[in-house]
Amino acid sequence: MGIKLSDHFTFGRLLKFVAPSIIMLVFTSIYTVIDGLFISNFVGATAVSAINRIFPLIIILGSIGFMLGTGGSALVSKTMGEGDYKLANAYFSMLVYVTAGIGVAIALAGQFAVPPIARLLGAKGEELKYCVMYGRVLLGAQPFFILQNVFQSFFVTAEKPRLGLLVIVAAGITNMVLDALFVAGFGWGLDGAAAATAASQFIGGAVPVIYFACPNKSLLRLSGTRLYFKALLKSAANGSSEFLSNVSASVVTMLYNFSLDKYAPVNGVPAYGVIMYVVMVFFSVFMGYSVGCAPLIGYNYGAQNREELKNLFKKSMIFMAVCGAAMTALSEALAVPAVKIFSFGGELYKMTLRGFRIYSLVFLLTGFSVFSSSLFTALNNGPVSACISFLRTLLFQIGAVLLFPLIWGLDGVWSAGIFAEIASVAVSAVFVICLRKRYGYA
After folding, report:
1. CA distance linking residue 342 with residue 298, whole number of Å
2. pLDDT for 344
3. Which of 91, 119, 286, 355 meets the CB 3.0–4.6 Å disulfide criterion with 367?
4. Which of 133, 162, 171 minimizes the C-alpha distance to 50?
5. Rounded to 5 degrees, what are φ and ψ at 409?
6. Can you point out the beta strands (E) in 72-151?
7. Distance between CA 267 and CA 263 in Å, rounded?
8. What is the 3-state secondary structure (H, E, C) of 226-272?
9. How far apart are CA 179 and CA 189, in angstroms?
10. What pLDDT score was predicted for residue 94?
11. Could you tell me which of 349, 328, 330 has the C-alpha nearest to residue 339?
12. How many Cβ atoms are within 10 Å of 185's Cβ, its own excluded?
């Protein structure tokens, strides 16, 4: 018998429930890293640099899916906790249809917008050519990418996290196999890598649509609906923290690139690109746990089960502390092989290794901020969640990346994230403590 949202969760049961979401996001990150490996080994550092410049745009647009997925699943799970499953399905269907429409609009408009945006982001010469080509292909696949992001949350709410994992695994395997075929086998370079990524996003977005449109045994199914404008706004507000988090992270990446162009004009951007590939895998553990746990919090909040909220909150804090310490130790121990697999040598290798060892200290703190933001999303308090994300991923990061390089040069660029996380944890703690009695999680 499967695990239900209404169950009591021991540590083992909780980890079993959230594991598919963690694995799903980790696997998504891993196949993105493998994509980077093929590009760095078979195309070169210029292509890696180009992707690092244009990819923030792809993430910003794709984060619309995370916003409506996390915010919408919080509303849907709360509605189910209140006992109205028919309305919950109507909300779910409406959100999926709206997301698909937004994705199509972005795909069409993006074809014209990529060249000027790539120039604005600092791309020149061969790097500009790579940026335009890669950006146009991935923006063409944007409807499926946004839907993939939406369904990552809704699979958990539908009590089918394992099925969501299988979809992402299928998408990832598609990407990796086509990378090997198109890039290494046919020698299509970055064009092949872009086509492989687009194909995987088609799998990740189309398969869930087919599943939820057909009769199934989950709690959710796509059906006729109407525009619930207030519910749409509520979902967007609930998920605004996830949207802001991705948008802010992308903007900060752009600032990192501009800063690195100043302090390390040749090797800085590709070094940062490699670091972000590896960091993405570890960060996805925190995000995966938060995505997996959010429907449980939302359901118990809707059902007014405060004892279970306290149970989930306590266990989540323990998980984030233990996981953060383990990740920091692991990243320090594996720094050399993690950087070497990208086959860069000389000064670029040394710079990447030092930058990775400094930057990886953020894992000690990141989990607390990520979960705190997700907690308030699940509790349908979008403003607080958005405030934590805005301060963490934008204001503190921008302040740090502008200030610390002036003091420590290139090391200041690598360490900026650490100081931003310290400030973010402090702000998150204030909100968590001040609102604990209102929601009853502690």
Report:
1. 41
2. 63
3. 286
4. 133
5. 65, -135
6. none
7. 10
8. CCCHHHHHHHHHHCHHHHHHHHHHHHHHHHHHHHHHHHCCCCHHHHH
9. 9
10. 96
11. 349
12. 12
Size (the chain), residues? 442
- The token duo for 243 is 């949207």
Residue 317 CB contacts under 8 Å (≥ 6 apart), including other chains: 368, 371
Residue-wise burial string across 394-433, b where 16 or more C-beta atoms lie within 10 A, e elsewhere: bbbbbebbeebbeeeebebbbbbbbbbbebbbebbeebbe
Question: Which residue is it, tokens 């249809």?
Answer: 97
Which of 289, 283, 249, 253 has its CA nearest to residue 268?
Answer: 253
Using CA atoms, how far apart are residues 250 and 282, in angstroms rounded to an integer? 17
Could you give the C-alpha distances from 406 to 55, 401, 410, 412, in angstroms and in order?
27, 9, 9, 7
Neighbours of 177 (CB within 10 A): 13
What's the pLDDT score for residue 2? Answer: 66
- Token digits for 333? 């121990």
Asked if 424 and 392 touch (Cβ cutoff 8 Å), the reply is yes
Query: CA 170 to CA 111: how far, in whole Å?
Result: 28
Yes or no: say if 43 and 189 are a contact pair by the CB < 8 Å rule.
yes
- Looking at the chain, the number of H-run helices and the number of E-run strands are 18, 0
The pLDDT value recorded for residue 138 is 93
- Residue in 118, 142, 140 with CA at minimum distance from that of residue 129: 118
Query: Which amino acid, 259?
Result: S
Q: What's the confidence (pLDDT) of residue 55?
A: 82
345 burial level (CB within 10 Å; 0-12, 13-18, 19+): exposed
Distances (CA, A) of 36 to 33, 75, 280, 341, 393: 5, 36, 12, 10, 24
So what's the pLDDT on residue 272?
A: 82
Answer for the pair 103, 25: CB distance below 8 angstroms, yes or no. no
Token representation of residue 184: 């290494």
CA separation for the pair 46, 418 (Å, rounded): 28
Q: Which residues contact 29 (CB under 8 A, 6 or more apart)?
A: 280, 281, 283, 284
Q: How far is CA 160 from CA 65, 150, 177, 380, 431, in A?
A: 19, 14, 26, 22, 32
Element (H, E) at 390: helix 382-390
C-alpha distances out from residue 217 to 40, 169, 212, 292, Å: 43, 21, 10, 19
Residue ranges of the chain whose pLDDT lies below 70: 1-2, 343-345
User: Considering the entire predicted model, what is its pTM?
Assistant: 0.74
